[in-house]
Design brief:
Elements (H helix, E strand, L loop, with lengths): L14 H10 L16 H13 L9 H22 L22 H4 L3 H10 L24 H9 L7 H11 L14 H14 L12 E4 L3 H13 L5 E2 L2 E2 L2 E4 L5 H9 L4 E4 L1 H6 L1
Parallel strand pairs: 1-5, 4-5
Antiparallel strand pairs: 2-3
Helix pairs in contact: 7-8
Length: about 280
């Protein structure tokens, strides 16, 4: 209508303004950020100093860390050996014959059938065995074939009967076979390899000057090193080596290496050591 008021004109909306507003709002979604974290050189340096100063006193939280540490130590030793150690041609050396198998299966164990053996292993916390012709587990200390002196020491220290790992491991190692034993802490693994070690030890001739050791026991920590050393000393009276008793020397960090080297030069049948000190020796 003429003279009437029409609707107000619409204000055009610019698309650029709407797009700008939409672009300015934060977008929702998953954001993946990738990059490389920078190492703190100062912290790394301090950590390296800590490992170097107390390498043998570290406490390990898992068996994987222990395995990595041992692998690293042996790797370094292998690299060092390529430079320093000469190649030995064993064909040109005449070695004395030696005995490996000291195990004699008693009749009570020999009479056990396969089903009886499996049932007995189930009673021993469900022992699992891999390998061919594995010896049957023993039930008492006299069945493992150690001397009367060792049996008396076992009785004196209140070792009533073999633990599951000892029942199965001792016949295997006493037979001179290689073995890997896995058992929880406090299950008696130390004595499982020490008793066969003692039997092999006393079968060797007395050490002459510059000879030895006959046995090397490597442990991941110095605490365990000292613990095994104390266990060996319990049985030292039952380990005659010619004119003297078998000697055990513990080599670990935190003490003067010169004193340990001097003790080794005086002769030792058994050495208990940690990887770091073994590498230095």
């Amino acid at each position: 209508m003429k003279g009437g008021k029409g609707p107000p004109p619409k204000t055009p909306v610019k698309e650029t303004d709407a797009n700008s507003k939409r672009d300015s709002e934060p977008k929702k979604g998953v954001v993946i950020m990738m990059g490389v974290a920078k190492k703190n050189n100062q912290d790394s340096k301090k950590k390296g100093e800590l490992i170097e100063q107390n390498q043998d006193g570290l406490e390990y939280s898992s068996e994987e860390e222990v395995a990595e540490d041992l692998e690293d130590a042996f790797g370094k030793l292998k690299q060092k050996g390529k430079k320093d150690l000469m190649i030995v041609n064993h064909n040109n050396i005449e070695y004395m014959p030696f005995q490996k198998d000291f195990y004699i299966e008693v009749s009570d164990i020999a009479k056990m059938t396969s089903s009886e053996v499996e049932l007995y292993r189930e009673e021993l916390e469900g022992i699992k065995v891999k390998g061919k012709n594995c010896p049957k587990p023993i039930k008492t200390w006299p069945q493992c074939g150690v001397s009367k002196k060792i049996l008396d020491i076992l009785k004196k220290n209140n070792y009533e009967k073999p633990s599951p790992i000892q029942s199965q491991a001792i016949p295997v190692i006493m037979s001179g076979r290689d073995m890997i034993g896995i058992a929880k802490t406090g299950s008696g693994k130390t004595l499982a390899f020490l008793l066969p070690l003692f039997r092999h030890l006393v079968a060797q001739p007395e050490l002459e000057e510059g000879d030895g050791p006959i046995a090397i026991i490597m442990t991941p920590t110095r605490e365990l090193c000292m613990q095994i050393g104390q266990e060996v000393k319990k049985f030292s009276k039952g380990l005659p080596m010619g004119s003297r008793k078998a000697k055990c020397v513990c080599v670990y960090g935190g003490t003067g290496i010169s004193e340990q080297i001097a003790e080794l030069k005086r002769g030792a049948e058994i050495i208990v050591c940690t990887p770091g000190k073994f590498q230095q020796l």
